[in-house]
Design a protein that fits this description.
It is built from 4 helices and no strands. By secondary structure, the chain is mainly alpha-helical. It has 2 domains: 48 residues, no CATH class; 57 residues. Helix 1 runs antiparallel to helix 2 and helix 3 packs antiparallel against helix 4.
Length: 108
C-alpha cells in the first residue's frame, strides 16, 4: 500500500514509483494514483493533459527505456541475449522515431 498522502518531492516520488513498479503485486488504482502524482510534480494536470504534452512524455519515456536497454545490451551475458536485446533496441528506436514524427506533425 502506498502512503497517503504521497510525497510531493519529485525525487522521493520517483523513488517510490520505481520501488512500487518493481513489486509483483501492483494495484492498478494505486498505480494510477502514483502516476497522477508524478504528473502533478512535473507540472502537468493529469485530468487535462493535451496530446502535445502526452507526446512529450512518451518521447521522454522512450529515451529512458532506450538508456535502460543500452545498459542491458552492454551487460548481456552471451551472444544470443545480446542479439535479442539488439533487436529490441532497434524496435524501440523505430518507435521513438515514430513518436517524434507524430510530435512534429502535431506542432505544425
Amino acid at each position: 500500500m502506498l502512503p497517503d498522502p504521497l510525497p510531493t518531492n519529485p525525487e522521493e516520488l520517483e523513488a517510490l514509483y520505481q520501488e512500487y513498479v518493481s513489486t509483483e503485486n501492483v494495484d492498478q488504482v494505486e498505480l494510477e494514483r502514483l502516476i497522477k502524482a508524478r504528473l502533478r510534480v512535473w507540472g502537468y494536470d493529469p485530468d487535462h493533459i493535451t496530446s502535445e504534452q502526452l507526446l512529450v512524455l512518451m518521447e521522454e519515456s522512450m529515451n529512458q527505456l532506450l538508456l535502460n536497454l543500452y545498459g542491458a545490451l552492454d551487460s548481456a551475458p552471451d551472444a544470443e541475449t545480446r542479439a535479442q536485446l539488439a533487436e529490441i533496441v532497434e524496435q524501440a528506436r523505430l518507435l521513438r522515431g515514430q513518436i517524434g514524427q507524430v510530435s512534429s506533425q502535431t506542432e505544425t
